[in-house]
Automatic annotation (TrEMBL), chain A:
Limits of the ABC transmembrane type-1 domain: 22-309
GO annotation terms (biological process): cell redox homeostasis; glutathione transmembrane transport
Pfam entry (one): ABC_tran
Protein's name according to its UniProt entry: Putative ABC transporter ATP-binding protein
Keyword ATP-binding: yes
Keywords: ATP-binding, Membrane, Nucleotide-binding, Transmembrane, Transmembrane helix
Location in or out of the cell: Cell membrane
TrEMBL record, chain B:
GO molecular function: ABC-type transporter activity; ATP binding; ATP hydrolysis activity
SUPFAM superfamilies: ABC transporter transmembrane region, P-loop containing nucleoside triphosphate hydrolases
UniProt domain ABC transmembrane type-1: residue ranges: 18-305
Gene name tied to this protein: cydD
Cross-referenced PROSITE patterns: ABC_TM1F, ABC_TRANSPORTER_1, ABC_TRANSPORTER_2
Record keywords: ATP-binding, Membrane, Nucleotide-binding, Transmembrane, Transmembrane helix
GO CC list: plasma membrane
Protein name, as recorded: ATP-binding/permease protein CydD
């Protein structure tokens, strides 16, 4: 529950004004509803009493009937405003939550961001964030509004009818639904978790079944895997049935709470009226208000269904949510300059007590020099680049930049000087220019064209409609080789002292690859290049070659 | 379990289901409770003393009955919904298990989404919208008739307000619909946008682009919020119209009842004036005339979501795909001699027919299938494994024709190395042996033991999501180990050395040659000269193609 409360508080603090507006209007709607029914009940009963007493002519009908009309119209209009205000608050919170998630994720260690590349993990995060969307609209706002409306209505009943009836309404409507909510939550917790776990298993196993269908068929495993899907499905059904039962019982209890309060106000009102303590019309107010307030507690059932999911989601997402939102200050001063990158007796182990991945390594890359790392796949070339970028620390030895150890340098300082282009290219949905300006927000169009020219991509971009050509999700719309070159152009815009390239020309034909390598050097004459080389065209572009020898077979 | 939805019936059936009827019955208790309250209050006015305790108790007993009926109805509805969902899910799993080729719906992820959370969207549709529709067709009529019994004037008010509501809602809703549909797409787009950014975050941080990414997302998100609010301003109008009419209807009845009771209005009833009971009763009933309409409006979104899912299900169902040969289960090993033949085989592929030449492959030989990419080499391997059904002609195994009867037994003798394997979300060990013990010998022959030793959890390392954690070369050797594991008589390998560096390729080739040297029949589809030169036979695959007009 605590992570959920924290997220709720975070949302509240960030959007206090819109939340308060939504809350105020929600309370107003509930109160007007109670007032409308209460007033109508009083009006009719009092009118009947006056009619029976033959005093119909002197009864003031105009003020109450005008009030009834006013409340009816006012409530409708307020309801409209309330809907807009609470949805506005929710949308703000929803967008704020996503932004905080991005910011929070940016502050995590590199290792944990890498997990985000896996689709299953991404889907998980998305499902959690979606679950939290209902936090304001279904839990926080209705809960606070319902409570406030009940208390205020109780106050009015105390003054207008009798303290006893006010006490029945407040006590019944506050403690009854609260008890239903918390007891229900306890019983719903386990089946809700089981149902979600079973649903995840169902998805994963079905994906396995379909994606590996041919392999499974050849190995005679198709029926077995299909049965695994069936088992997950059965587990989901069982958990879901239990969850439904809890929800049903909560709904039943909630109905009874409302009816018990109404029955009590009816009984108490009749007793008091028999004793002439209150008039029949006042007794009617109590009953009608009790009926109207059922609306204030109705959201409990829906909230119960979703709170379990929200609690779990909050537990998982909370660590990645940024607490405060400092606008990540990053208008990047572009320190040029040059420095030598040096590896001094470096070793790397994947875990404690494991043998090193490659033989001890010492080399340096001077400004303007190109060094190629060669070696079989899995020998650790990418690992070396990650160490040079400060994303991994060597197990022993030191990586230095201009004589200063990279270890312990802040991300910002390092990123000003070192740029790594990993094997997988990360483009985002948006225009070509947007993708490029991620690296250099202040770059002019001319600078962008220069960078594109350096990687022989300018003509391609021109054909696609220039810098404003739109790319789909993850850079959809460009071929593999084109995406690769766009990532390289982005790196050129950083004007780094050290440029680390992981198999930079993968997917390019030999002629293009050679011209890209030459273009990069021409665009960044003073930069030290370190590349994990796979192809002869990359090795040919290097001044020196460092062979990485794999130790792990 | 409910039998209300039989296998062939469509989804209209639950409309007359027991669950909906029970929910209607629960709603019909309210007039009785209202009469009780009205009678008690009227009694107070007219000096009829009734025991407050008995009145309250009677009201509460009716309430228990009402809540009980409602709970029962929900239980029934929930069972029916579960039954429908289970049936649709099972249908999807069963058919996908033995289908071949891709679905029109999309890849495995899209199908899993359909079977998972999308089908779940049917639940509120079946549980909320359907019973609401039943109530809306009965309750207002009942309340109208009761009202008419006491006062024609009130009945006229209800009659005027009631039918106007759907009309106005339709008008406003119609204007909002188009806008809100676009909106749904955009809200989905915001999620996609977040995934897009999150997936790229690692690399973007490496180029110091963290800040700009957050800012651009913030910008997109903010503009989406503004557009959403613009749409909601119209969309909420339709429910406001509904509430306006119901509020005005109730207020008009309250005012009319008040004036009648005071004796200031003499018309609107059948002769004699309105008594206090009737007045209070009518007031209590009036809101419930509109309630079913409001329930239906609230469930409108469930309907749209539910029907979209049913449409998608139907699209999937209409997509006829060939079934694989056999059923893919474990079977008794087929006992005939290993000799493979192709006789006049024609394979339908999208809008083309591939006409293969007749081919014979003898036991214990090494055969390379070569040809341009896309020539049909992979399809030939799939034909030999019974994973594709020839449109004409026969695949011979020994002297039998490969058919549903012997395909599973034949496959029990095969090893299979696909070019792009999908590993199950299970341990590495399970991915090699499928639950059977894996011997060190197998791992040695596939040259994979070193790789396993270097993994943090050894052969218990979890795979999945396209072999996360394994490089291309490692994944290839895992598929080799899996193929060798069952000591197959025939090994079919698709481009076993593609995209591998020389060192790793050599390891894979040696593993394959060792297998052939022990008497296995090896069939590889390949471009790789290093591999081709070590084979006994080279068969060029260049099937004739014939366009098929759809």
């Amino acid at each position: 529950m605590k992570p959920l409360m924290n997220i709720a508080l975070l949302m509240w603090r960030a959007e206090r004004r819109s939340f308060l507006r939504g809350l105020f209007l929600s309370v107003l709607v509930l109160l007007m509803g109670a007032a409308l029914l209460g007033l109508s009940g009083w009006f009719i009963t009092a009118a009947a009493a006056a009619g029976l007493a033959g005093a119909g002519a002197v009864f003031d009908v105009f003020r109450p009937s005008a009030m009834v009309r006013l409340l009816a119209l006012g409530r409708t209009v307020t309801r409209y405003g309330e809907r807009l205000a609470s949805h506005d608050a929710t949308l703000r919170a929803l967008s704020g939550l996503r932004i905080r998630l991005l910011q929070g994720t940016l502050q995590l260690p590199f290792r944990s961001i890498e997990r985000l590349r896996a689709n299953t993990f991404l889907n998980r995060v998305m499902a959690d964030i979606d679950a939290l969307d209902g936090l304001a609209l279904r839990l926080v706002l209705p809960g606070l509004a319902g409570m406030s409306a009940i208390l205020l209505a109780g106050l009015a009943l105390w003054v207008l009818v009798s303290p006893g009836i006010a006490a029945v309404v407040v006590l019944g409507y506050v403690f009854g639904p609260l008890a239903v909510f918390f007891v229900g939550l306890r019983y719903a917790d386990k089946p809700a978790r089981l149902a979600e776990a079973a649903m995840q298993a169902l998805r994963t196993r079905l994906i396995d079944l379909i994606a590996a269908r041919e392999d499974l068929t050849v190995y005679g495993q198709l029926s077995k895997t299909r049965d695994h899907v069936g088992i997950a499905q059965d587990r989901h059904r069982t958990a879901r049935n239990r969850l439904d039962r809890v929800e049903r019982r909560a709904g039943f209890s909630l109905d009874l709470v409302g009816s018990a309060v109404t029955a009590a106000t009816l009984g108490l009102g009749l007793t008091l009226a028999h004793g002439q303590a209150i008039s029949p019309a006042q007794a009617a107010i109590g009953v009608f208000v009790a009926l109207a307030l059922a609306e204030a507690v109705a959201p409990v059932q829906r909230a119960l269904t979703e709170t379990g999911r929200m609690i779990q989601a909050a537990r998982r997402v909370a660590p990645s949510i940024a607490e405060d939102s400092p606008l990540a200050a990053n208008p990047m001063p572009m320190l040029g300059g040059s420095a030598e990158l040096r590896f001094d007796r470096v070793q790397y182990r994947r875990g404690l007590g494991q043998q090193p991945v490659f033989t001890t390594l010492s080399f340096s890359v001077a400004p303007g020099e190109t060094v190629a790392l060669t070696g079989a796949s899995g020998s650790g070339k990418s690992t070396i680049l990650l160490m040079a970028a400060g994303c991994l620390s060597p197990s022993s030895g030191a990586v230095t930049l201009g004589g200063v150890s990279i270890d312990g340098q802040s991300d910002d300082t390092l990123q000003e000087r070192v740029t790594l282009v990993p094997q997988r290219h990360a483009l985002i949905a948006g225009t070509v220019a947007e993708n490029l300006r991620l690296a250099a927000p202040l770059a002019t169009d001319a600078m962008l064209w220069q960078a594109l020219n350096a990687v022989s991509l300018d003509q391609v971009v021109q054909q696609k409609g220039g810098l404003e050509a739109r790319l789909g999700f993850r850079g959809d719309g460009l071929s593999g080789g084109e995406s690769r070159r766009l990532s390289l152009a982005r790196a050129v815009l950083r004007k780094p002292s050290i440029l680390l390239l992981d198999e930079p020309t993968e997917g390019l034909d030999t002629a293009t690859a050679a011209s890209v390598m030459a273009g990069l050097r021409k665009a960044l004459p003073q930069t030290a290049f370190l590349l994990a080389a796979h192809r002869s065209v990359e090795i040919a572009a290097a001044d020196r070659v460092v062979a990485v020898e794999r130790l792990i077979e | 379990m409910a039998q209300s939805v039989s296998a062939d019936e469509d989804f209209e059936a639950p409309l007359r289901s027991l669950g909906s009827v029970l929910s209607l019955a629960a709603a019909l208790i309210w007039p009785l409770q209202a009469a009780l309250i009205a009678n008690a209050l009227a009694g107070l006015l007219q000096g009829r003393e009734a025991s407050p305790f008995l009145v309250a108790a009677a009201f509460f007993v009716l309430a228990i009955l009402r809540a009980g009926l409602l709970a029962l109805s929900q239980r029934k509805l929930s069972e029916d919904a579960e039954f429908t969902l289970t049936r649709l899910r099972s249908e999807l799993v069963e058919r996908e298990a033995t289908a071949t080729g891709a679905s029109v719906i999309g890849g495995p992820g899209a199908l899993a989404a359909l079977a998972g959370e999308k089908l779940e969207a049917l639940r509120p549709y079946l549980m909320r919208y359907r019973p609401a529709r039943m109530r809306v067709s009965v309750l207002p009529v009942v309340i109208l008739l009761i009202t008419l019994w006491y006062s024609w004037a009130c009945a006229v008010v209800l009659l005027m307000a009631g039918p106007l509501i759907p009309l106005f809602m339709a008008l406003v809703g119609w204007a909002a619909k188009d806008a809100s549909e676009r909106q749904m797409v955009e809200i989905g787009a915001l999620s996609d946008l977040l995934v897009d950014r999150l997936a790229a975050l690692y690399d973007l941080r490496l180029i110091g682009a963290g800040g700009p990414v957050v800012q651009s997302f913030e910008h997109a998100s903010e503009s989406l919020r503004e557009r959403t609010m613009a749409v909601l301003r119209i969309a909420f109008l339709s429910s406001t119209v509904l509430e306006l009419f119901s509020a005005l209807g109730v207020a008009m009845i309250a005012v009319w009842v008040g004036f009648s009771l005071l004796g200031q209005i003499g018309w609107g009833t059948w002769g004699q004036g309105l008594d206090p009971f009737a007045g209070i009763f009518l007031l209590l009933l009036a809101p419930d005339y509109f309630q079913p309409l409001r329930d239906l409006a609230a469930a409108w979104h469930d309907k749209a979501a539910g029907e979209a899912v049913l449409d998608e299900m139907q699209t999937w169902r209409n997509d006829a795909r060939p079934q694989l040969i056999g059923d893919g289960g474990a079977a008794t090993t087929w006992a005939g001699p290993v000799a493979i033949g192709l006789r006049g085989v024609v394979l339908r592929q999208a809008n083309q027919r591939l006409i293969y030449p007749d081919i014979d492959i003898k036991a214990g030989t090494r055969t390379a299938l070569i040809g341009k990419s896309g020539a049909g080499k992979t399809s030939l391997l799939r034909l030999l494994a019974g994973l594709a059904r020839p449109e004409q002609g026969q695949v011979l195994i020994g002297d039998e024709v490969l058919s549903d009867a012997n395909a599973d037994g034949w496959r029990a003798r095969l090893g299979w190395m696909p070019q792009a394997p999908h590993f199950l979300s299970q341990s590495l060990r399970y991915n090699i042996g499928f639950g059977q013990p894996v011997t060190d010998g197998t791992l040695m022959r596939a040259r994979i033991n070193g790789v396993i030793a270097a993994l943090p959890k050894g052969d218990l390392t979890l795979l999945g999501d396209r072999g996360a954690g394994l490089s291309g070369g490692e994944a290839r050797r895992v598929t080799l180990a899996r193929a060798l594991q069952s000591a197959p008589d025939v090994l079919l390998a698709d481009e076993p050395t593609a995209d591998l560096d020389a060192d790793t390729a050599e390891k894979v080739i040696t593993g394959l040659m060792d297998y052939a040297a022990e008497g296995g029949t090896l069939i590889v589809a390949t471009h790789d000269p290093r591999l081709i030169e070590r084979m006994d036979h080279v068969v060029e695959i260049a099937p004739d193609r014939e366009r098929v007009d759809p």
